[in-house]
Amino acid sequence: MKRYIIGDIHGNYKALKQVLKRSKFNYEKDFLIIIGDVVDGYSCSYEVVEELLKIKDKVFIIGNHDVWWMNHMANGWAENIWLWQGGRATRESYESHGYHYKKLPQAHKDFFNNGVYYYELDDMLFVHGGFDYPRKMPKDETKDPRDGKEGRTFDEEMADINDTLDLKSPSEEESEEGKESEEKVEESSEGVEEEVDEGQKGEEAEKGELSEEEREIKEAEDILDHIASIAEEQGYEVETDLLQAREVAPTIVDEAVEREVDLILIGITYKRRFGQFSLGSVVPYVLKNAPCRVILYQEYTT
Fold it and tell me: Domains in the chain, please, with CATH?
């Protein structure tokens, strides 16, 4: 028997099949450790679970995306942050097979509800998102390491899980081999304005022929043109857009969700606050709530 580990499948059925085939995984003899986030992201979460159910010897460790899906299975919960982070694709995957949260295959429900929060093997500890190192962990691997209660069902766990589980929004990387994503760049002139440091403002004030708003718009357009040219040189089809709004960060995220973009690119400049480099307020919000990959493009000024 060989032991294999896989994590963050995120509904990518094709990639799952590829790695199992290329690793010559034996569904009857080998052992698979699944370290969380089976669902959310790609459009085949149903097929992924079906494939995993075929494996005789396995252990499933619950990830934060699995918790969101399990919450939806239990009571139809569908908060925006889950939908933005791939939940919509998971729900549509099951709906395409005639299922919804009130009607799901029992084998699928059992798969998730029988998951554990960590797994010990020899001198190794497997978890999805880390653990509190100083805290003594219970020896029984079926226990919840956060409170030491054994044999808790998902419905019982839901009473306090959202207060104790770290539900940070991970940056999801596409793992499907050979897939070339159509990149759409979202930029905001006000986002650029917030990140311009005092030195750059003084230098640009000499231009004088443009108002501050016009200057910021022109700079944002120049950034978009530059990025578009780079993408086109690499053979990507790119659609760019310039956003202007009173509240920049929520607008970027909302537009990205509505347009189903593949990438958000944010141009920033070096800015200091209290003597340290600062990302401002826009970047952290977008990094936390974006439904896709985010790239920060730092412009160095002299």
Answer: 3-164 (3.60.21.10), 183-299 (3.40.50)
